[in-house]
Specification:
Length: 101
Amino acid sequence: MAAPGPLYCLTMFSVLALAAAGKHVAVFGGMMRSHHLTVVPLIEGLLEHGHDVSFVVPNTTEHRSYFPKGVGSATMVFLGTEDWAFDTLFSGPEYDFKNLP
C-alpha cells in the first residue's frame, strides 16, 4: 500500500487543526444569490463545531435582503459604502453574464 500523498496529509492536518479548537472563519458568498445559498450549509456546519463565523457579503440592498435575520449566529459583514447593482456596473452595452463565451 502506498503512503498517503502530500495533499491528503495537508487536508487531514487542516481538518484536525480546525477540530482542535474554535477558530474565527470568514466565509465569502460570491456575487449572486445562488452563491450565497450554497455556502449556508458550510456556515451552519462551522457554527455547530464551535467556530466563530463572519459571513462577508457586498453592501447592497439586494444582498441585505437575502438573509434579513442573518445565518445562525454568524456575524454578517457588509463590504462597501454605496448601494450598487449589476445594472449600474457597466455603462457600455448590456452583457448576458450567464451566456458569455
